[in-house]
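In the lab's daily routine, each protein ends up as an entry in a very long ledger. A line of letters takes care of the sequence, but it says nothing directly about the fold. The three-dimensional part falls to structure tokens, numbers that each stand for a local backbone shape. The outcome of that step, for a single protein, is printed below.
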Amino acid sequence: AAPQPSAHAAPPPPPPVEHVWHIAVDGQTSGPFSKAKMGRMASDGELTRDTHVWTAGQDGWKKAGEVQELAQLFTILPPPPPSS
């Protein structure tokens, strides 16, 4: 007979909840965006530290630079190019 899988094997943990983000620019909200999309927007300059963002469970709108999960998107950006 085939060996039975152990009944004591723990089920895999649920995947972490992926936050989706909404942004507000000039009074217009857009989203939801995934964190990966937010990272692309940050590298394109569409999302800045001063952009207001909101995600479920967050107490009101905050600047992206004040949200730890998003602030790291800006720390990996290269500095602006030197002015010629």
About this structure: Residues 43 and 77 are 7 Å apart (CA to CA).
